[in-house]
């Protein structure tokens, strides 16, 4: 009805639309290129890259990448419209073109050749602001060297990222501290060794520091506290020893802290309570002991607390129940004993709770059944007992992400115990308290059988189609 009443006007409207849009459609291809080139012409024509700088750049390319014969194919690295892949240029106060960014390793950026070694010449590029070398140094051993300082303007470099370079070895050079404006330093997934140089902590502009996945040794220097602007600190997967420095409490902006998989000992320092913005803290796989700091509950921004595998050997602190933003709480393999605090059920946003492989006893708090966002719950291998307080809808919702196995004293109400593989026997069926096996193996065979049945019916269906 409606469309038919408008249909007489439709061609007219279309025609009008076409009429008005036509000039502008035509004008785009005719005006736009002229406009751009003339602007570039005025702006850039008198500007070229200083010869010494382009020569430096050619040398860097010679040592890094054989994707192109750079001198021949791209004689003008910053040529407007055909800048080299993997670099960015800017116009300096001297009205000349300069390289501001180098990004190698991942196509479409230049890839690195087998013999690529770290090019210290980059520090002679006076306008360099960011460096990204990803998966570059893989075959030939090379060291990070900041010795040839050249004429680098020491305030230009803001971001320095060398990631996934398995043949980048040796220490982090103390002279890295000359890059006063460095905000992001990423030296992750290399083979760097030796101590973290204390000079590094003079870089007070640092916002992100990531030295993870190396072979760094020694302690975390107390000078860490100088980095007042730090938002992210990742020293995970190294071989750092000693304790977490108390000065960590001075990092008032810190949001992410990852010290996992080191050899850190002692306790978490009390000063941690000052980290008001901390939302992610990972300390797994160290040698940290209990107790937790008294002020732990002040970490009201905390969403992820990941601290598996430390010899804590204390009771689980009730105060964790006050960290209401927690989404993930992992405290497995750490010798916690006593009961699971009822207060944990106040963590309404919790989606993952890992308490497996501890020494926990008593019953599972009844209120856990009301954790509306829980998605992954592992309480396996403890000494929990009593009736599992979860109804069938809870059990269905978590499915395979619920693991209660290895708690000989736990049992399931019969009505809830339909074919679920959570590793718990039905209450009263067998009071032997060591028999999770029958249910598990039974349900395995059931699912195997149903698989076989499924395959069989497929085969029959297939034969049916043939006939
Ligand atoms: C860095 O620059 C500052 C001034 O901006 C200067 O005082 C200092 O000596 C420079 N450092 C190096 C190593 O060039
Ligand atoms: C931590 O380990 C170091 C050796 O790495 C040792 O000297 C120190 O006593 C240990 N501290 C504690 C509190 O265990
Ligand atoms: C829980 O999560 C929801 C959605 O992510 C969020 O809006 C809410 O603020 C969170 N509650 C707390 C106490 O953090
Ligand atoms: C586990 O807890 C029991 C008491 O419930 C205690 O006797 C035992 O020493 C604890 N084991 C460990 C490794 O903490
Ligand atoms: C299961 O328990 C939850 C929380 O106690 C409750 O909200 C829900 O209605 C229960 N579902 C059934 C089917 O009993
Ligand atoms: C177990 O079943 C009994 C009887 O069916 C019921 O009274 C009890 O509340 C159930 N317990 C749990 C934890 O569901
Ligand atoms: C629970 O933890 C145990 C021991 O680490 C692990 O083997 C199991 O796969 C985990 N279960 C789930 C459902 O994550
Ligand atoms: C309990 O388990 C033991 C072996 O662990 C077995 O000898 C015994 O027969 C079992 N009792 C029942 C009632 O199943």
From TrEMBL:
Keywords from UniProt, A to Z, are: Leucine-rich repeat, Receptor, Repeat, Signal
Signal sequence region: 1-27
Q: Which InterPro entries match?
A: Leu-rich_rpt, Leu-rich_rpt_typical-subtyp, LRR_dom_sf, RLP_Defense
Pfam families, per this entry? LRR_1 (PF00560), LRR_8 (PF13855)
**Record keyword Transcription present:** no
Q: Which GO terms describe its cellular component?
A: plasma membrane
What does the entry give for GO biological process?
response to other organism
Q: Which SMART domains match?
A: LRR_TYP
Q: Which SUPFAM superfamilies match?
A: L domain-like (SSF52058)
Source organism superkingdom: Eukaryota
Q: What is this protein called?
A: Receptor like protein 29
Organism lineage reads as: Eukaryota, Viridiplantae, Streptophyta, Embryophyta, Tracheophyta
Primary gene name: LOC107416371
């Amino acid at each position: 009805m409606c469309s038919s009443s408008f249909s007489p006007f439709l061609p007219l409207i279309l025609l009008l639309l076409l009429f008005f849009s036509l000039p502008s459609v035509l004008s785009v291809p005719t005006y736009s290129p002229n406009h751009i080139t003339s602007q570039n012409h005025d702006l850039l024509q008198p500007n070229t890259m200083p010869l010494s700088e382009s020569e430096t750049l050619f040398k860097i390319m010679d040592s890094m990448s054989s994707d192109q014969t750079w001198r021949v194919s791209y004689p003008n690295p910053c040529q407007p419209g055909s800048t080299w892949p993997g670099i960015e240029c800017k116009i300096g106060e001297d009205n000349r073109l300069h390289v501001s960014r180098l990004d190698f390793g991942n196509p479409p950026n230049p890839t690195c050749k087998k013999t690529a070694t770290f090019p210290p010449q980059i520090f002679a590029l006076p306008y360099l602001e960011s460096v990204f070398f990803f998966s570059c140094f893989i075959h030939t051993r090379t060291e990070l060297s900041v010795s040839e300082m050249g004429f680098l303007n020491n305030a230009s470099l803001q971001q320095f990222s060398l990631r996934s370079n398995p043949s980048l070895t040796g220490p982090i050079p103390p002279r890295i501290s000359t890059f006063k404006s460095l905000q992001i330093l990423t030296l992750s997934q290399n083979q760097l060794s030796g101590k973290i140089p204390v000079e590094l902590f003079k870089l007070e502009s640092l916002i992100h520091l990531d030295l993870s996945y190396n072979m760094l040794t020694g302690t975390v220097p107390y000078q860490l506290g100088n980095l007042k602007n730090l938002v992210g600190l990742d020293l995970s997967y190294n071989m750092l020893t000693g304790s977490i420095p108390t000065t960590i409490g001075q990092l008032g902006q810190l949001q992410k802290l990852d010290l996992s998989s080191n050899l850190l000992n002692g306790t978490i320092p009390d000063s941690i309570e000052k980290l008001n913005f901390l939302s992610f803290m990972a300390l797994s796989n160290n040698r940290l002991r209990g107790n937790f700091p008294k002020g732990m509950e002040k970490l009201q921004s905390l969403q992820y607390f990941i601290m598996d595998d430390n010899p804590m050997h204390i009771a689980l602190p009730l105060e964790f129940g006050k960290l209401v933003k927690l989404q993930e709480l992992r405290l497995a393999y750490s010798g916690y004993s006593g009961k699971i605090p009822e207060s944990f059920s106040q963590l309404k946003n919790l989606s993952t709770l890992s308490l497996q492989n501890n020494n926990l006893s008593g019953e599972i708090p009844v209120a856990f059944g009301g954790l509306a966002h829980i998605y992954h719950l592992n309480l396996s291998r403890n000494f929990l007992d009593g009736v599992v307080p979860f109804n069938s809808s809870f059990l269905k919702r978590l499915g395979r992400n619920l693991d209660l196995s290895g708690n000989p004293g736990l049992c399931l109400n019969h009505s809830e115990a339909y074919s679920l593989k959570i590793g718990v026997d039905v209450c009263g069926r067998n009071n032997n308290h060591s028999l999770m096996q029958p249910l598990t193996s039974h349900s395995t065979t059931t699912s195997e059988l149903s698989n076989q049945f499924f395959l069989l019916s497929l085969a029959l269906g297939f034969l049916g189609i043939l006939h």
